[in-house]
Amino acid sequence: MITIEDIYNIDNTDFYTFHESIRVQKGDWDYYYREIDYPESDSISWSDLNPVYSPLKSGVVTLQMIKDQLENTDIFLISKYMQYGDYDHSCMVERSNYKLFLEDYGEKPGIFRIYGGYGSSGIAISVKMLLNPDNEEIAESIIELLNGLNDYPVIDDEDMSNMEYEAFLEALDSWAIRECSDLLSKQFLVDVYDFNEDKLKEVLLESDRNLNYPSYMIESGGICYIDTKQLVSHVSLVDYFACLIDFELKGDLS
Would you give the distance in Å from CA 16 to the centre of its chain? Predict the structure, then answer.
């Protein structure tokens, strides 16, 4: 049986309460606000979550505080390993964990998607749901997963790797193909007026596969950085010229 001690002892998680004002239509033109302390939909805003507050100077939230809070309202558990935004220190680890967790548990009662500004996302898990004996099998599975993330922070390496590669492909399409073409045009002394982006993308992907290590990495905020100089290092003159549509040689390449 799951106990509150089991939940309290999970590292790298935070406890929050929920409070929201709901606008309710009373008549054709008349409205009033109703206060609720439990979400009515499966998506909730960060602005409606409040950290369980400790009056202690250390800021430590004690087990007794959690027990006292649960007597009045539910508490929501949020794992740092499934929380991310555009301008934080997260990478693809948190994004992959978030996606996989929702695939397995997203439709279960007591599981909520968190949204906020600048791409802020996370998952809130109802503590009362975890303590409910009717949910013991699901609760044990979730707690085992959360504890496991403290030993190794990735749910599935392959999924995370696939998401990183997808981000690499998106960055290629967004800006890196054109930047690589600029580098190659300078290297091979040619003015390029038009080129086939699809062909050059294939050439660049082949070049990436021939490198000793990937030419890209995921930075904070989930942004993909591509070392374009490294990426073009295995592109030959013949391969590049096969991608050009309209160009002019600057000098003698013989």
Answer: 20
* pTM for the predicted model, two decimal places: 0.89
For each of the chain's 254 residues, which pLDDT tens digit applies?
A: 899 999 999 999 999 999 988 777 777 777 767 788 999 999 999 999 999 976 665 668 889 999 999 999 999 999 999 999 999 999 999 999 999 999 999 999 999 999 999 999 999 999 999 999 999 999 999 999 999 999 999 999 999 999 999 999 999 999 999 999 999 999 999 999 999 999 999 999 999 999 988 899 999 999 999 999 999 999 999 999 999 999 999 866 55
- Residue carrying the six token digits 């403290």: 150
- Look up tokens 């950290």; give the residue: 51
Q: What SS3 string covers 71-111?
A: CCCCCEEEEHHHCECCCCCCCHHHHHHHHHHHHHHCCCCCE
